[in-house]
Every structure is written in structure tokens, then in C-alpha cells.
Amino acid sequence: MNEETTTPNRRDFLKNAAALAGITVAPGILLYSVSQAKPADQSVTSEQRWGMLIDVTQCTSGCDECVKACTVEHGLTEATRPEIAAHWIRKVGLRDKQTGQEYSLPVLCQHCEHPPCADVCPTGASFKRADGIVLVDKHICIGCRYCMMACPYKARSFIHETLENQKPYSPRGKGTVESCNFCVHRVDKGKNPACVEACQQAGHEAMIFGDLNDPYSKISEKLKIVKSTALRADMRLNPGVRYQGL
Amino acid sequence: MKNMVYRELEGNSPGYYGLLGISAILVALGLFAAYNMEHHGHVITGMTNQIVWGMPHIFAIFLILAASGVLNVASIGSVFRKTFYSPLGRLSALLAITLLIGGLSILVLDLGHPDRLLVAMTTYNFKSIFAWNIYLYNGFLVIVAVYLWFMMERRMQRYYPVAGLVAFIWRLILTTGTGSIFGFLVAREAYNAAIMAPLFIALSLSLGLAAFILILLTDCTETHCPLGEGILHRPKSLLGVFVAAAFYFVLAYHFTNLYITERHGIEYFILVGGGIYTFLFWGGYLLIGTLLPLILIYHPQLNQSRKNITLAAVLVLIGGFSLLYVIIIGGQAYPLDIFPGMEVTASGFFDNSPVHSYVPSHWEIMLGIGGIAISVLLTTLALKILPFLPASLADADLDPQLLD
């Protein structure tokens, strides 16, 4: 047990030391610090707030690498009918009614600071983690779907049929509601969500994930200099997902 | 008023056993539907990730509204001291309980996890209006049961006006809660309106009274109980008032939306271009469920016939069901406006559908009818076990001096 708890600390120490050394020897090169994932034996805190910036100008209409990556990562299988298929992230094409300008962008759970889904959930199965990630506790979700009625972004899916071949790190279940969880299993290990990684690998760099509370994180640095918007900003839910160039 | 004599149903007639048998079969079919929905999942229903609440919710809310409304007959007797209605108090309270149980059964059996009912009863998020409703519904059952006990137990009768008042206030809060399930949905244009609560209260009054009149007529026909024209005339006129009140709130709701520019889309959808929803609004709710009953109730010649009163009550129920269909399904069929000012040209998740389609499956309808059958079965059994029905409702048996 001791061995298990000391090993990550030693690793963290070495990682921090390496980061510190990097900052010391190469001032001006490393402009932002890397947000640290929490050690597995510590609970999440509100010191961090995970968020995402989506640069719509870098997102191309034919590309759906983020959607594919999500499907693979969470084992979202085909449904009997498209209307009942689960979508954690989807690509949407938009045209400005006034100017005719066209956009393509991914839409996912916006991880609101004040999530209406968590407000309406009778059992508290829908909840916001201290670090801002909005999740569903599949053990106490009774499948009433009130959160789906309440979500302004249509970000949630109800599981209408029996599922097979689920991923152990991403439990899902018939009769419960689910949505994007920012790949919490990856985030807790210091990795980016699968969609962000896929977008980077596709060379688009349209998605940045990071800690909004850390003023030196890449996402915070970028949010300081670019104009970004929230979907349905009029509702003042303060989503963790922001869009640039929309 | 004379001391009323109450009696149990004899319950030996073929009609009684027929009703018991049919409702038992329908309950079994409803449970079978629920079992299938649980076993296969909601894939066998018409509900989707776009239309997440379907036919079961319409049946359930219909019954829940009728349950709170039907108690009004008892309230008029005990809270508003219209002694004329007092003999009907027991039946009214009984129906409030049985209709609510029927409605709640549908809601619970439609859950993705009905097996987690215990979780819903023990794990609460008090910011959720749904969680409040769980308290309100359970509290209603307890309060009305106590109210009924005080009505039926001679030693407790002096407390029964207090119990009546508590039940009356509770039912107002309960229907406010039911309406607020929709009223508090800030994201959807069809909802997010405080008027949903009073609209649902008015609708509950008309649905409850219509159901009560029908059940009273059925019982008295079956048992050959003398039923005076007076005892029918008053609830009938009151039904007209309730139907008009519900219409007033529907009118206010739509006028408000027509004034708010951003809601023109949903208004156009419901009132003009919504297909089945437009048809059900104008034809089902307004014509069949409002105008025709009002004519039948207030026309000096037409309102003399008992058949017409029965018809008016049936039409009010059809109208209420239609309105709930328009509110619940129509409100979801109109897509969310996630990107104001933008036209959605493509989407992997139906954001670009002008309307979300919904066709209820027979499983959903079976479950809904099963819920009604639960109410009927419980009522039929209760009427045989305890004296809920007055022996006579002939006008002569009610002291004319106290008629008001």
C-alpha cells in the first residue's frame, strides 16, 4: 500500500523537478505550465476547473475525427434506430441567417458551472464534480430523463437497449442517461480527452483542453487574447466549453 | 342536511365482476408492457433521444391532474362549507387516492430503472422539482387518507374540516409542483413559463370534476341509486366554470408567447404548422374539449339532458388529454434553439430536423391504459369494502333549506 502511494509521489516529484528545470533553462520558451492531474489517492478539488476551447475557424466541415475518437474511447456502439443512438459529441453545420457565413463545430456536454441537468435530477445522479466536470452516477440514475428535458444543449442520451462490449473505464447501462464526461478517466491521469487528442493528431488543433482556473494554462492564456463565446450565453450557465470564431 | 346513510357496493352483479375482470386484465397487460420495456429497454417504445417523454407521461399527468382535481368536490363540502356537496366527499377523496396511485404507477413503470424506486425514495436532490414532487405525491396520499378517515369515523368528525383544509392547500401545492415540472424547464421555449402551474391547476379542476361526474353517474346507474337533478346540475355548472378557467390560462399562455418575439417559432408550430399538434390543439382541445362542452353545459335546452352532461364530461376529458399531448409531446417535437440566429445545416444528432417525430408504440399505450385500470380496479374494490357511496342522492334526501 505504502509502495503504491509513494511511487506516484516520487514520479510527481521528478515530473515537477523536470518541469522546473525546463522553465529555468529555457525561459521564454515554455510560456504556460502544464496542469497537473491529481494523484489517484486524492479527491478532486475546486482548485481546478476543466474546460475546453474550440476554435471553429480550425474545424473543418468534412472532419469528424473527434466524434470517431469518442465513439471508440467510450464504446458507443450502433443503435437499432438512429433516433435512439447515444451521442456524446456531434458535428454540427451552421449558417448565419443574416450574413450567410458557414461554420462547422463539435457540440458536446458544455460542463456548465450551473448545470440545469444537475438542478433537476431528483436523486442527484447528475452532478458536477468539484473540478467542474459534469457526470452521471449510473448507480443512482433512475432513468427519468428529466435532465434531458432540462439540458439546453441536447447533450444527453438515454440508453434504450442492452449494451455489450463496454469499456471498463467508461461504464454505461440500459435505462440510464449519459453524456460526455470529458474523458474523466484520462483527465485524472493527466491526459487530454480522446476528442482533443484526435483533433491534434488530425492536424487541426481546433480543440484545447485545460484548467480554466490556472492563469498560465494554455487554454487560459489563449482565452485572454482571443474572443470566445459560450453557446446560449444568455442563459448564464457559464459553460466550461467555449467557442472561438463563432 | 339529514344524517347521510352510506353503504358499500353490493358487488354481486355481473356488471361489477365484469368491471373487475376487465380492469384486472388491463392491469396485467400494463404490467406486461412495463416488463417488456424493462427487459428490452425503451427501444420498443416510440420514445427517442429527441422525444424523451412520451405517451406514458401523458397518461400519468392526466391521472395525476384528475386526482388532485377530483378532491375538489370534497373540498367544496368541507372547506367552502357547501353542504350540498358533503355527501360526495368520501367518494371524492377515494378517487383522489386511486387516481393518483394509477398515475404514479405509470410514471414509475416508465422509468429506465423502476427497480431503483427505493433510490428515488431515499436519495434526494432538493433543488429538483421532481424530488419535491415525490414528497408532494406521498404526502397527498397520506393527507387524503387521514381526511377520508376523519370523514368516515364519527369520533373524528370535528377535525375533518381542518383535515379538509390541509388537503385542499396540499393539492394546490401539488398541482403547482406538477405544472412546475414544465414551468422550470428554462431551456425549452414551449415551457419555461410560470403560468404552467395555474394552467395545470385549472386543468386539474376540470379534469377532476369531469371524471367525478362520470364515475358518479356510472355508480348510480349500476346501483340504481336515486340521483337528483340538483346534485347533477351544480357540478355541471361548476364544470363549465372550470373549463372556461383552463381556457383562460391557455389563452394567456399563448398570448404571452405571441408577444415575445423569440417564441414566435414555437407558437407558429403549435397554432399553425405543427400537423398533429395543431390539429389536436384546435380540434381536440379547443373544439371538442372546450367549446362543445361549454355549449352542452350552458345551452338552456341542451343542458337538461343527463346524456348531454355525460357527453360534456367525456369531451372535457378528451380535450384535456389532447392539450397534454400538445404540451408534452409538441413542446419536445419543436427543436431546441441551441444556436440563436443560425440555421443548422448539418448535424449528427437531429439538430437540423425541423420537427422531431414521435409515434407512440402499443407498449406505451398499454402501460397508460394499465394505469387507468389500476385506478378503476382499486376504486371498484374499495367501494365494495367500505361505505363510500351515499345510499341516496335524491334531491329530497338533501335538506332543501341548506341548498346553496
UniProtKB/TrEMBL annotation, chain A:
InterPro entries: 4Fe4S_Fe-S-bd, 4Fe4S_Fe_S_CS, DsrO-like, ET_IronSulfur_Cluster-Binding, TAT_signal, TAT_signal_bac_arc. Residues 50-81, 132-161 form the 4Fe-4S ferredoxin-type domain. The keyword Iron applies. GO terms for molecular function: 4 iron, 4 sulfur cluster binding; metal ion binding. It comes from the Bacteria. Pfam families: Fer4_11. The keyword Iron-sulfur applies. PANTHER family: PROTEIN NRFC, PROTEIN NRFC HOMOLOG. This is Sulfur oxidation protein DsrO. It comes from Thioploca ingrica.
TrEMBL record, chain B:
The chain crosses the membrane at residues 16-37, 57-79, 91-109, 129-150, 162-187, 193-217, 238-256, 268-297, 309-334, 365-383. It is a multi-pass membrane protein. GO terms for cellular component: plasma membrane. Gene3D superfamilies: Formate dehydrogenase/DMSO reductase domain. It is found in: Cell membrane. Keywords: Cell membrane, Membrane, Transmembrane, Transmembrane helix. The keyword Nucleotide-binding does not apply. InterPro entries: Electron_transfer_protein (IPR052049), NrfD-like (IPR005614). Its main location: membrane. Belongs to the NrfD family. PANTHER family: PROTEIN NRFD. This is Electron transport protein DsrP.
